[in-house]
Amino acid sequence: MAADQPSEGPLDHQSHHSHSGPVEGKREMSLDNSMEETKEPADFQRGFRFWAIIIGLGVTTLLGAFENTVVTTSAPFIVSELGLGADYIWITNAFFVCSAAFQPLFGQLCNVFGRRWTTLVIVAIFTLGSGICGGANSGAMLIAGRAVQGLGSGGINMVSDIIISDLVPLRQRGNYIAVILAIYGIGTTLGPFIGGSIVEVTTWRWVFYMNLPVGGVSLVMLYFSLHVNYSKEMSFMQKLKRLDLVGNGILMASTVAILWALTVGGVQYPWGSWNVLVPLILGIFGFGLFGIYEKWGWSAEPVMPPRLFNNRTSVIVSINTFLNSALLYWIVYFMPVYFQAVKRYSPSYSGVALLPQSLVGIPGAAISAIALSRWGKYRPLHFAGFAVFTLGIGLFAYLDENSSRAEWGVFQSVAALGAGMVLNTQLPAFQAPAPESDQAAATATWCFIRTFGNVWGVAIPSVIFNNRINELLPRVSDLGVRELLSNGDAYQYGSASFVESFPQPLQGEVISVYRDALKLVFEVAVAFGGLAALLVFIEKEIPLRTELETEYGMKEPSKTAPDVEK
User: Fold this and answer.
1) Coil, strand, or helix at residue 404?
2) For the chain, where do the domains classified as CATH 1.20.1250.20 start and end?
3) Of 492, 499, 473, which Cα lies nearest the Cα of 401?
4) How far apart are CA 211 and CA 146, in angstroms?
5) What is the reported pLDDT for 199?
6) CA 376 to CA 379: how far, in whole Å?
7) Residue 265: helix, strand or coil by DSSP?
8) What pLDDT digit, counting tens, does each position of 259-292 carry?
């Protein structure tokens, strides 16, 4: 593929010409963009069944949204009861590593076995993981349950994007992805509040048990609404041969190895020790081996086709997707520490304090989606979004124990506005160079990059935070407190009840340690955000298709059951 050129002919991207008479053919270029924008493709229909699928996907998305963040305010209670200690990070990382590693495989399963049953199985897996977590009586069981949850959550996020891509033309996908992401954003932002409220009123186990009824409702809604075409006739063994099992295995193993190194490096083991260097080197080597395996076509259907990255736009969008998702979780997981350990808010009020992230971020995402659909230009939205997001993160570094509600509210609003502008516009930009036949692979690849970024968005600031805590501990006069907060345990003690259990001036010393550690966490985040803003200038605008060409669209009511999801 030529650099920065869509794999389809350029005429396919501007195929609807608005005339008073019949359309002269798909190859004719549109000469009037404003007229084109007001005319919807004939094959794009939004009836009751369409909206039933969208709403069903939205309810399903709530499952993953809650569990991505609901443990942030409840984690200290969970870690304390189950005695996880420094292993608390695996409550999050087990979730994210499985979420990321299995997404490309789920993308292939959608092509091989169809969207409908793959989606239902994914939701069932997530619900099962929630039950395991709720009934956990040890740290190992909880982490195992979180891994199962993560597997289902990654599939939920990915399959939602794939189904919307099947139902909506590329130019307008941002509008409908915005509907799903709005629900996701609400769930993500309310998660800390809900988690904090649960642990204050009842047991932390309901943080996970609440997913059981939601999962049940989701399964029922999708079972009755998600009827999409799938007519490929082949045996079960033929379908299995299409799966890139070796490629997926290499990818999963490499992801786990790198995450392990990031988690223990500088906390449990020195960065130069073999405990860190060996898994890190093996993981990086594994990613290289995965790339070679996919490039040389040793698999009949590569899980991540190299042709998806044959242009600079896809490469830059991939990098910025990674950076954006990392920064989002950077904030989601460390702002609660500020509110509870520095401002000494209760877990439930900390959740309320995080509301500006959804109250501003969701409208920002909706506005950017409408602008993308109206003008078809994503570069200005990417640059403006990353610039504003980086500014907001930089302002977080100025927060301390004396900051007013207005300050932390405005600072969060600035960051949320920028993050929202980027949120809905990355996937259409990544899909633009790829033909419609590669949309499932492109979507699964993009989702993997996004979710893998989430992993780093927790691991990197955790390493920075823990190392900085160790450096600042000499200012704490009490030796026992220093031992409690050292070697990666400070996060689990980052609550108002812990801080306020000490008399002055010891309480002020503990607060200063948390405050200055968080300051460095946010300062480092600014560098990542600034890099993303600069990389936008390398992107190239590629026209977004206005036609919908897919073999996985909604089933026509007149079609018989054997034609669907065989």
Assistant:
1) coil
2) 48-244+300-538
3) 499
4) 13
5) 73
6) 10
7) strand
8) 778 767 766 677 778 888 899 899 999 999 988 8
Residue identified by tokens 């190895």 is 257
The vertex-548 CA angle with 544 and 549, nearest 5°, equals 115
pLDDT of residue 176: 79
Give the CA distances from residue 358 to residues 134, 178, 362, 418, 426, in Å, rounded to whole numbers and listed in that order.
27, 13, 5, 12, 19
pLDDT at 282: 94
What is the Cα 217 distance to its own chain's centre? Answer: 23
Cis peptide before 474 (omega within 30 of 0): no
Q: From CA 104, how far away is CA 344, in angstroms rounded?
A: 42
pLDDT value of position 43: 47
Token pair listed for 345? 């808010």
Q: Rounded to whole angstroms, how far apart are CA atoms 71 and 284?
A: 30
Helix, strand, coil shares, percent, the chain, to 5:
75, 0, 25
- Of 109, 118, 143, 64, the residue nearest 248 (C-alpha): 109
pLDDT tens digits, 396-423 = 999 999 999 999 999 999 999 999 888 7
Give ∠ CA 479-481-484 in degrees, rounded to 5.
115
Residues near 509 by Cβ (< 8 Å), separated by ≥ 6?
475, 476, 477
- In this structure, the number of other CB atoms found within 10 A of the CB of residue 43 comes to 11
Query: Which one-letter amino acid corresponds to residue 19?
Result: H
What 3 state SS string does 84-135 have?
A: CHHHHHHHHHHHHHHHHHCHHHHHHHHHHHCHHHHHHHHHHHHHHHHHHHHC
550, containing H or E segment: none
Q: Which amino acid is at 186?
A: I
- Nearest-angstrom CA–CA distance, 506 and 478: 7
Paired with 228 in beta bridges are 554
Q: Strand, helix or coil at 7?
A: coil
According to the model, what pLDDT value does residue 163 have?
Answer: 85
> What's phi and psi for 560, nearest 5 deg?
-85, 160
Instruction: For the chain, list residues with pLDDT below 50.
Output: 1-43, 559-566
Cα Rg, the chain, nearest whole Å: 24
What is the phi-psi region of residue 541: left when phi exceeds 0, alpha when psi lies from -120 to 50, beta otherwise? beta
* Helices and strands counted in the chain (H then E): 23, 0
CA 54 to chain CA centroid, Å, is 19
Amino acid at 11: L
- Statement: 48-244+300-538 belongs to CATH 2.102.10.10: no
Q: What is the DSSP letter of 543?
A: P
SS3 228: strand
Task: Specify the pLDDT at position 549.
Answer: 65
pTM of the model: 0.78
